[in-house]
Structures are given as structure tokens and as C-alpha cells.
Write a structure and sequence with these properties.
It is a single chain. The protein is an alpha+beta fold. The chain folds into 2 domains: 3-201, Rossmann fold (3-Layer(aba) Sandwich); 239-343, LytTr DNA-binding domain (OB fold (Dihydrolipoamide Acetyltransferase, E2P)), CATH 2.40.50. The protein contains 8 helices and 21 strands. The strands form 6 sheets. It has a 6-stranded mixed beta sheet with strand order 5-6-7-3-8-9, with helices on both faces. α2 packs parallel to α4. The chain is globular and about 65 Å long.
Length: 346
């Protein structure tokens, strides 16, 4: 019961959506493909039979069921949770027990509530529930953790662990590397350059590193004289960003966190992002005196904005910020140890 992409490629006229690639997903594996929205839609439409690949094929046994978890899924808002699950139980001619599935997605207390009265995260858990009722062999999941609250993320990750043990084949399609890392065993990037592994784990420190994009770390010439750098106890300095043709200056305390993606650095401030010409290494040095912490190879966070430290798995952590979006920033395993030291925790 494997899912295989065999020389699969897609192009439209002169546009290459993605060149030919090969990928095999074994039972009990969760694999993520990180891509643009366009590539993600092309893959989904291929599975749905709405479009065909230009080259190659997607191979799986025809008698195996495929279940879909879409980012945008319609629902019958006038039905209660239990009525919805009974509808899908009948639709899929399923023998799965509704009560056990309600417990799995932790919606026992909401089972008699209408869907229109549920929160976004609770409705996504209902969507997970009807997928479990279908009980497919292959799961195709689009952005499964996007905008979920912390409790729903815990439930999602717990279900993914159970599906691994049940030897299901799971493919996650996402635009966010961090989502792929949190949800999957193997993460790949798919674009016009082809398919390539995004992440590898460094044996010396366990940190997850994106190898699919060139790094922005500085290379030091060992022949040059390295001057000793003195960190001042306090530094008054603004961080420049560019908005259209204007340069906008921000005070460090305004910044929630900083992200580097595909070679570009962004400052995240009150739900908005601003491009910055400095590398993360530059910003880490400049902002150290202001209470900023390099929590991940691709992230720097303002510790004054951190509200919670969440443990997802033994090697997966997140920092939840005290902003209006309740932003979640990844925390690498080694940086977790450093943070505990800073906080005086064992």
C-alpha cells in the first residue's frame, strides 16, 4: 500500500509548475511536500482527477481508498456534530464507532452543538472526525495545522501518531516548512527546480536545517585578523525595513519575531511582516542586548513577547507569543536547552 510518484511532472504551455520527480511514501510514513499554492493545487487536482500530469504518473492500488483533508471544506452548519458524523458514517458505509471518534478528536462535550456555533479549530476537528469515519488507506492533507489553536494541534499530532501505527500512508501539502517539520517524518520542497529534501538533522545538535535553499550564514576568512567584539550593555538602535520605496525604521521592542525564508529576512510586527536587508546573524548580534533570542536557525524571537513554551514531541517545540495572532514560532531542541538555562530551569 505505497503511494508512488513516478517521473511525475506538470507544465502548462511555457510554464513549468514542477519538473519530473520520483517519490515513494511507505505505509506508516508521514511525508510533507512544501510548495507554492499553485503547485499544491496542481497536486490536489491530480489526485481529484480534475487535471492530468504532463509526464509520469501517481501510482497506488486502485482498491485503496483516498481521504482528503482540505484547507477550505464546506460543512452543513445547521447540523450538530453527531448528526454530521452520522451523515458521513452512512455516506461512506462505515463501521467506525462515532463515540470513539468523538473521543479521539475530543468533541464529546460539543457533540450536540450545531457546527455554526463551533470555533474554527473545533470545526477542523469535526473535519478530522469525518475523515476518520471514512478510514481511508491514504490520507492527503492540505495545511492540516493552519490557524489551529494549541489544543487542536495537540489532537492533530496525536492522531498522526496513531495513523502511523495503523500503517496509513499520509501526504501533507503545505506552504510552510515549519508545518512540515512539526507534522511529518520526511519533508521535501517541490518547485520549478524539482523535488529535493528540505530538512536534515544535524547529529551534533539535533537542530533541523533547511538544505534546499542557500544559507545566508557569513563565511569568515581565516587569514583576516578577527577583532574582538564587545557587546555593549545597552544599544539604542533602530532596524531599517523597506516598504515600497520608503525606508521604515522600527525600535527593537516593537518587533515580535524575525524570520528568514528563501534567503529573505522578515520582521513580524503586530501581525504584519516587513522585509529587511540584514541577515539573521546580523540581527542576532544587533538585538542581543534588547532581549532577543535565536530560537531556531531560521527564527529570532523577542523573549519579552513570549507567553508559553509548548512541547509537541520529544524533539519538537514551539514558542507562543502574547500578540493578537497568538503567533507560534519553532524552537529547536538545542535552543530549548539554552532557553531553560536562561530561565534558570533544569
Amino acid at each position: 500500500m505505497t503511494l508512488k510518484f513516478i517521473q511525475a511532472g506538470k507544465h502548462t504551455n511555457d510554464m513549468i509548475h514542477f519538473p519530473e520527480f520520483d517519490l515513494t511514501i511507505q505505509p506508516g510514513e508521514v511525508t510533507a511536500i512544501v510548495s507554492t499554492v499553485n503547485v499544491k493545487e496542481q497536486l490536489l487536482n491530480t489526485f481529484l482527477g480534475k487535471t492530468r500530469l504532463s509526464n509520469g504518473k501517481v501510482d497506488y492500488l486502485p482498491d485503496k481508498k483516498i481521504g482528503f483533508f482540505f484547507l477550505h471544506e464546506g460543512c452543513y452548519e445547521r447540523l450538530t456534530v453527531v448528526e454530521t458524523l452520522k451523515y458521513y458514517q452512512k455516506l461512506f458505509n462505515s463501521s467506525e464507532q462515532i463515540e470513539s471518534i468523538l473521543q479521539a478528536v475530543q468533541l464529546d462535550a460539543q457533540k450536540n452543538k450545531k457546527l455554526k456555533s463551533l470555533t474554527y479549530s473545533e470545526r477542523k476537528r469535526v473535519q478530522l472526525a469525518w475523515l476518520l469515519i471514512q478510514n481511508p488507506d491514504i490520507y492527503i492533507m492540505e495545511e492540516p495545522d493552519q490557524n489551529l489553536d494549541i489544543e487542536s494541534k495537540r489532537i492533530l499530532f496525536s492522531l498522526l501518531r496513531e495513523l502511523r501505527l495503523a500503517k496509513k500512508v499520509i501526504l501533507i501539502l503545505t506552504g510552510q516548512v515549519e508545518s512540515g517539520v512539526a507534522c511529518s517524518d520526511n519533508v521535501y520542497r517541490l518547485d520549478e527546480k524539482g523535488l529535493r529534501p528540505v530538512l536534515t538533522k544535524e547529529e551534533d545538535n539535533g537542530e533541523v536545517i533547511d538544505r534546499s535553499e542557500p544559507t545566508t550564514d557569513k563565511i569568515t576568512n581565516t587569514d583576516e585578523v578577527v577583532e574582538e567584539k564587545v557587546i555593549q550593555p545597552i544599544r539604542f538602535e533602530k532596524i531599517p525595513t523597506k516598504v515600497n520605496e520608503k525606508i521604515v525604521l522600527f525600535d527593537p521592542p516593537e518587533i515580535d519575531y524575525i524570520e528568514s525564508t528563501e534567503g529573505q529576512t522578515y520582521l513580524h510586527i503586530k501581525g504584519e511582516s516587513f522585509a529587511c536587508s540584514f541577515t539573521l546573524n546580523d540581527l542576532e548580534e544587533r538585538l542581543l542586548a534588547f532581549g532577543f533570542f535565536r530560537c531556531h536557525r531560521s527564527y529570532i524571537v523577542n523573549l519579552q513577547k513570549v507567553r508559553e513554551v509548548i512541547t509537541w514531541t520529544r524533539n519538537s517545540y514551539s514558542l507562543v507569543l502574547d500578540d493578537s495572532e497568538k503567533s507560534s514560532v519553532p524552537l529547536s531542541k538545542t535552543k530549548m536547552a539554552d532557553l531553560k538555562g536562561m530561565l534558570g530551569l533544569k
